[in-house]
Amino acid sequence: MNETLFQAxxxxxxxxxxxxxxxxxxxxxxxxxxxxxxxxxxxxxxxANIVSVDPAISTKVMTVVNSPFYGLSSEVCDLAQAISLxxxxxxxxxxxxxxxxxxxxxxxxLELLRIWKHCICSGIFARIIAEHVGHFEAEAYTTGLLHDVxxxxxxxxxxxxxxxxxxxxxxxxxKASYLExxxxxxxxxxxxxxxxxxxxxxxxxxxxxxIFSHHExxxxxxxxxKTLARIVHLADLVADAxxxxxxxxxxxxxxxxxxxxxTDDVLRPLQMDMDSFxxxxxxxxxxxxxxxxxxxxxxxASISPIRAYALAH
Length: 313
Description:
This protein is mainly α. The protein contains 18 helices and no strands. It has 2 domains: 3-20 and 107-312, Hypothetical protein af1432 (Orthogonal Bundle), CATH 1.10.3210; 24-103, no CATH class. The termini are far apart.
């Protein structure tokens, strides 16, 4: 990456987002969970120690763990025990998703909920794709979940700015991409914001580059970054096509537009063709969407009744 360009974008990121303006969970629980997930020596107790620091998050994690979705034979009251029963990767998924959701205690709740649902679907779909291609099975969910973290940070810190971008994008009616509108109005787009944030969290380079290039997966220089970016890019398109877009689409757009972008050029680098993609898509549309809906419903049910009403209406 061009160092001069990065420094210019990072300065704009600092002016717009501000290093001290992160939601608490992004600065704490989320970054620490991601950090320990890269260490093969970590245990269920390590993850429990991180989550237990925030009582609100630990309560929600336990609510999700004890929900009918996971079907445990008896109620679990200990975080470390719950993580051991579920397995580290599944427990990490719950803790990350709940932690990100906990950062949404700002205005613009409905917009943030739309992005969160999109990111949950993208994370699950990315994991399914990664399992099919045999690469990055452990990292795909986390990267898919965080690929639009730039939008989440914008809504959390500068909601008026992203509202302006959304209005301009809708008005353009497809004549300008969302990234083009962001750069025009903000001098930076959500992929750069996500990349800068990922740098501050010390995410592995290939995950940072995949977040940055999830719209243009051929950008990263390394093979690892390209592969993960391609997985997330495909998952992102399927999430849009499944009725969970990250942004409101212009009037002349539809979910089918996202599917039409999935061409041989998108599939071939992942050693997939239309036939194999159809089989993977079927899994995403059935088991993947069922998992996403159940998980979203379970997490929504763990929040207060007042907020649940606001989110549902």
